[in-house]
Amino acid sequence: MSTAASPIPAPSAPPSSRSRDRRRSLDRFGDGALYWVCVAAALVAVAILVAVAYQVVHGAGPAISRFGLGFVTATEWQPNLEEFGAAPFLAGTLISSLFALLIGGPIAIAIGLFLSLLAPKGVSGVISPLVEMLAAIPSVVIGFWGLIVLAPFSKSHLEPWLHETLGFIPIFGPPQTTGLSVFTASLILTIMIVPIVASISRDLFLSVPRDVQDGASALGATRWETIRGVVLPSTASGVIAASLLGLGRALGEAIAVALVIGAGSDIPHSLFETGDTLAARIANEFPGAITEMHKASLYYLGAILLVIGLVANLTAQWVGRRFDYRQAVAR
C-alpha cells in the first residue's frame, strides 16, 4: 500500500528578521509622518502671518485710499476733524526702541559673557534663572512699576543730571515736570529686552568650542583678546539675531509704553518730551474709535508696524550673513 508524500513546508523567516522588517516599516512611516507634520506646522505659521497681514491691510484700506503714503509723513492726529498722520508715532517708536537697544544691547551682551565665560558655576547657576525670570514678568506689571517708581525717579534725578551733563546735545533738552517721557519709555523697553538678548547671547557664547578658546590662550592671548578675537566673531550673526529679537519686542510693546510715555501727539525733539508709539496709540484708541476713518487709520498704523518688522528682519538676515564668521574665514 503506497502512501502520498507529504509536502515540505517552506522555511519561515526568523522572528528577528520579521521584527526588523516591521521596525523599518514603522520607521519609514514615522519619518513620513514627521515630515508632513513639520510641513503642516510651517504652512500654518505662513497662513497665520498672511491672514494677519491681510486683515490689517484690509482694515486700513479706507485710510490708504484717502491719505496714501502721505499718511507716513503727516503730523496731525485729530480724530474729531478726521485728520490723521503717523509721523509722531513713527518717530516715537523708532527713537524709544533704538535708544533702548543702544543701552540694553551692550548690557545684555556683557551679561551673557559674564554668565558663560567669566562667572563661577555657582554664581552663574543662580543669576541665569533670575535673568530669564525677568523676561517672564508681564509687561503691564513693568509698566505699572515704571509709572509709580521709575518716572518719579527719572524726573527728580536722571533727567536733570543728563540735562546738566549733556544738555549741549539737543535730545537732552530741559526735563519735563511729570517724568512721563520718551526717555522713561526707553528705560522700560531696556528692562524688557535685556533678558531676551542676554539669555540667547549666553547660549551662543557657551556653544563656542572650548578647544578653540584654549588654542588662543596657548598662543598667548589674554582672556579679553580671546573674547574679542574668537568668541565674539564666531557668534556675531547669532548676537545680531538676538538683538533683532529684542528690538522686535521693543517695537511691538504697547501696554508698558503707554503707561509711561505720556501719550503726546507731536514729534518729540527731546528724549524728555512726551510722545507715543505706533503700538501704544493703537492700544489706547482702538477700543474707542469714534469713526470708521479713525479705525482705518489705526489699522494703517498697524500696517506700518508690520512693514517695520519685516524690514528689520530682512536687514538682520543680511547683516548676519555679512558678518558670519565661518563665511568670513572661507573668503
Describe this structure in words.
The chain is mainly alpha-helical. 74% of the residues lie in helices and 0% in strands. It contains 14 helices and no strands. It is globular and about 80 Å long.
Task: Please specify the SSE layout and strand pairing.
Layout: H1 15-59, H2 61-67, H3 70-73, H4 87-118, H5 121-135, H6 139-166, H7 182-206, H8 210-218, H9 223-234, H10 236-252, H11 255-260, H12 278-285, H13 292-322, H14 325-330
Helix pairs in contact: 1-13, 2-13, 4-7, 4-10, 5-7, 6-7, 7-10, 8-9, 10-13, 12-13
| Radius of gyration, CA atoms, in whole angstroms | 28 Å
DSSP strand content: under 5%
Rounded to the nearest angstrom, the distance between the terminal CA atoms is 92 Å
Order of helices and strands: HHHHHHHHHHHHHH
Rounded mean pLDDT score: 84
Describe the oligomeric state of these chains in a short phrase.
single chain
Structural class: mainly alpha
Can you give me a brief rundown of this structure?
The chain is mainly alpha-helical. It has helices at residues 15-59, 61-67, 70-73, 87-118, 121-135, 139-166, 182-206, 210-218, 223-234, 236-252, 255-260, 278-285, 292-322, 325-330.
Relevant terms:
331 residues, mainly alpha, disordered C terminus
